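During the second half of the funding period, the structural biology subgroup turned its attention to how the target accommodates small molecules. The most pressing case was glutamine, which had performed well in the primary screen but for which no bound structure existed. We therefore specified the complex as follows and requested a full 3D prediction, including the ligand pose.
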Amino acid sequence: ACLDRTESHDAQVGAFLRVDADAALAQADAIDKRRAAGETLGPLAGLPVAVKDLLCQQGEPTTCASRMLENFRPPYDSTVVAKLREADAVLLGRTNMDEFAMGGSTENSAFQPTRNPWDLKRSPGGSSGGAAACVAAGMAPLSIGTDTGGSIRQPSAFCGVVGMKPTYGRVSRFGLVAFASSLDQVGPIAGSVTDTALLLDAIAGHCERDSTSLDVAKPNYLQDIDKPLDGLRLGVVTEHFGKGLDPEVESAVRAAIAAYEGQGAEIVELSLPHSKHAVATYYVIAPCEASSNLARYDGAHYGYRTEERAMLAQLQADRKAAQEAGDEQALDDIDTALVRMYRQSRSEAIGPEVKRRIMLGAYALSAGYYDAYYLKALKVRRLIRQDFDQAFEKVDLIIGPTTAAPAPELGQFDNDPLGMYLLDLYTVSANLAGLPAMSLPCGQSKSGLPIGLQLHAPPLEEARLLRAARMFE
Ligand code: GLN
């Protein structure tokens, strides 16, 4: 059914970069046979899962929606993909995204834009736009996204589905192509809170191959999910309802807060005073880490290499010969050619937004600016985290909007990168503080666009998030 639906609808939506129908059907058949033979199957037995195209899957292209990795086929599975296989999921295909997960509209993909299934003139959000859109359009019940500054929650809000960014370290990032390593986290997208819990159960847990993975026991997220939380204290943040918040979003979110109050929750007004610096802080730290992480795409080790320049092997052989001959001039010339190859490869294969991030990051990390930008941003990051720590002494969860407005039109931010960055107003704080947060649908605008409600929890309280979300659903 998912394959049929994809066949009939994805030409319009563009959620998938690749669908491997034959392999998916073969996996489904194999699972059926094992079921018939009486084998015990995993918790996702036979359920199709779509995976964002930046988690390594052995032998399959893993492009990050970049020309740079167009022909990259990893020789191994990421831990998340391996866990999906262990759970007997069917790997349906790979979803579109902003190049290297940098963006908020999926328009930065080198291959195609994705359209919002609710209104094809609009963006599904990003960077996990394909992952959210395929669930919204009924092409997959479950998908995997990543969230560095909101890339699971924001597209989930724009597409009317449920998405969670778990605590930093909760889900393994082994085999995830890195964007900003201190912020990146993998998480589930689904059509309901229960399905989100089911998928999180399958992918969460300690992983020895990821040094940032948390070595703590993993609860069963489905257990107790239907038990409402007694005496729930919900924090409403003054700064989340300031200038720029769309009135329709505000009233949907206020109605959701009232619904919780109706179920006995206590509503506590509070302030996160440093949250006004979150976007600025994020857009220093994320590009700094990106500029460092993306240095590996040099046209030499793997990825795209320019055709216009001499082949690397020849240059390396020449270099060796020149070294042996002690020919300094020849060595200089060869090194210049190598740098040219590096520069040319990157110029040709990396898109404009990713280049902008690399330049911003390299600038902020350079001698003379490091203290003023990068180090300052790290200090503000600490203050943002402290605000949350203090807030969670008074409340169990924080409730508010996921985004300030519903999905933007495609092309709206073509010449306005800053406007695009401001889409992340309410989402980046959770990444800066390492907290779990989720988005769930809470209404529609008059024009029929979905509106997202966001919940934040203290570290490792994903089960609390899910139970609270289930109370609303
Ligand atoms: N929109 C943010 C950015 O462009 C977040 C992206 C993400 O979470 N991957 O960096």
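Two results from this model are relevant to the next phase. The mean pLDDT is 96. Residues 101-104, 127, 147-151, 179, 286, 424 surround glutamine (CB under 6 Å).
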